[in-house]
Amino acid sequence: MIKCRFAPSPTGHMHVGGVRTALFNWLFARSQGGKMVLRIEDTDTERSTRESEEQIINSLRWCGLDWDEGPDIGGPHGPYRQSERTEMRIYNDIAEQLIKNGHAYYATYKADDPKTVISTSTERPQLKEGYTFTVKFKIPDASDITFKDLLKGEMSFSSDAFDDFVIIKSNGFPTYNFAVVVDDHMMEITHVLRGEDHLSNTPKQIMIYEALGWETPQFMHIPLILGHDRSPLSKRHGHTSVEHFRREGYLSKALMNYLALLGWSVDQEIFDYVEKLKDFSPASISNKAVIFDYEKLEWINGKHLRMLDIDELVSQFELWFRYTGKTDFMEAFVEDAQYTREVLKICREKVNTLSQLYDFSMPFFTEEPEYDASYVNKYLTKEWSLELISEAMRRFEDNSDWSVEGVEKIIRDLAELKITSKKNTFQTLRGGVTGRLVTPGLFETIAVLGRERTLERLEITLQLAESLRDDEEE
After folding, report:
1. Is residue 35 within a helix (H) or strand (E), and if so which, with residue range?
2. How many Cβ atoms from other residues are within 10 Å of residue 367's Cβ?
3. What is the pTM for the complete model shown?
4. Are 24 and 56 in contact (CB under 8 A)?
5. What are phi and psi of 144, to 5 degrees?
6. What is the spatial order of strands in the sheet that 191-195 belongs to?
7. Distance CA 216, CA 404 (A)
8. DSSP-derived 3-state class of residue 118
């Protein structure tokens, strides 16, 4: 049975590159009816934090990536943690086995000079004060380390290129290259799909596998995600954490859709990654470098946003409200469900993220318009504004057809009076009911606001225009 794993270190926010690695492992395991393991590699005691671990787990769950095993599998199972396995002496016992077999040894140092080896031995040192020791793996003489990478083909390294390396640190914790071998073997991992930055670690790990007489898993090293300057994607290129994109209002399916495209040769550009399971295989992953394109991600997110069933969009919006704490118009948002649906229907056509949707739809949920200065200065200070707004109010007062077509007729007839230009007529009304000059379609906006809201807002706008006129006269 195929068994994959994702093994992040909890030393910071979940990077989009890490999520892509998790996604490819998840797709492979699920497409083959196999299993997926989550393992937190927290042996770096100085940098690892539980807060970071929680962010990783929450990010994976938000992305829709689940796993099948964990120490508390009876409940909503958590991940394996190397720190907890260290407490069980799993790594130390196997290190001692390597020492007995002549593949490792104890190296003693002065505590204040960890780079200079004082002595080596296959017997556990009796330390004097001020001394410490590690366990080091012994590199075999003049041998070739070969393996077939599922993406890069046959790979070969000479053991002469490596020096003996530490497998158990002075604090008793295993190093990465040792712990990952022990864990992958004991968890019966069959395939290791990971970033190509780990390629240099693979020969060391294979030497440990061979020293222990264990079968090696199949390796696949995937090109890293790069920034615009073709260096590994990092903060200098822009935000890189899953948490950032979630806060900015990206949909998890859209983010996963985009990350899947960064390396996976697939016959669609917009898709639900879960529905494409049957099409996934390691052979469909490209060995070419990929560039993270923030604009492309936003475009894909906009596509997914507009594909959502309106009730699902409302649900996603509410979840985003709670996640970000943007609850300032939450009460108005949930007060009239049908009104909310109509607002989101017309607003989502011009935005790409939930954050943009929030800003774009806000005027519909405030009690009265919050006027942009540009609107006030450009339109409400003009002599014709009072006459135009007053005439619009009279016509809307008598209107019985609040369909988009009915509203359009009123506004176009109003423009034919030539109180001012057609553009001025449209923009004055647009700003009058929303406070802004950039909104959804004017006819759709007023149709959704309806008679009561439209007249109330135009009345407030008229009063503002009159007060501006009074100030000028004074």
Report:
1. strand 35-40
2. 11
3. 0.91
4. no
5. -100, 135
6. 153-158, 144-149, 218-222, 191-195
7. 66
8. strand
- Return the sign of the alpha-carbon dihedral for residues 299, 303, 304, 306: positive
pLDDT over threshold 60, residue 37: yes
Distance between CA 385 and CA 332 in Å, rounded? 30
Q: Indicate if 162 and 243 belong to the same structural domain.
A: no
User: C-alpha dihedral over 288, 32, 37, 266, to 10 degrees?
Assistant: 30
Answer for the pair 189, 37: CB distance below 8 angstroms, yes or no: yes
Degrees to nearest 5, angle at CA 283 with 277 and 288: 110
pLDDT at residue 474 in the model? 53
Residue 182 pLDDT more than 80?
yes
Q: Cα angle at 12 between 10 and 13, to 5 degrees?
A: 105
Q: How many CB atoms neighbour CB 172 within 10 A?
A: 14
pLDDT tens sequence across 73-84 = 444 566 888 888
Q: Which residue has the tokens 């985009």?
A: 258
E-strand spans in 138-291? Answer: 144-149, 153-158, 165-168, 191-195, 218-222, 225-226, 290-291
Q: Judge if 93 and 212 occupy the same domain.
A: yes
List the one residue out of 472, 453, 464 whose CA is nearest residue 428. 464
Token pair 């016959």 is at which residue?
A: 267
Bridging pattern class, strands 35-40 and 3-6: parallel
DSSP state of 3: E
Strands 165-168 and 131-137: antiparallel
Q: End-to-end CA distance of the chain, in Å?
A: 85
Which of the 8 DSSP states describes residue 79?
-
Catalytic pick from 148, 235, 418, 422?
235
Q: What is the rounded distance in angstroms from the CA atom of residue 8 to the CA atom of residue 456? A: 55
Asked whether residue 149 carries a pLDDT value surpassing 50, the answer given is yes
pLDDT of residue 76: 52
Structure tokens at 295: 């604009």
- What type of residue is 404? V
Total number of domains constituting the chain: 4
Q: Do 191 and 157 fall into the same domain? A: yes
3 state DSSP class of 339: helix
How confident is the model at residue 88, as a pLDDT?
78
Could you give the C-alpha distances from 399 to 245, 294, 393, 459, in angstroms and in order?
Answer: 44, 46, 10, 16
**Catalytic annotation present for 235:** yes
DSSP state of 142: S
pLDDT at 347 over 60: yes
Q: 96 and 170: one domain?
A: yes
Element housing 176 (H / E):
helix 176-186
Structure tokens at 225: 């995600």
CATH of the domain at 143: 3.40.50.620
Looking at the structure, tell me whether residues 218 and 228 fall in a common domain. no
Range of 188's domain?
Answer: 89-222
Q: Is residue 365 part of a domain?
A: no
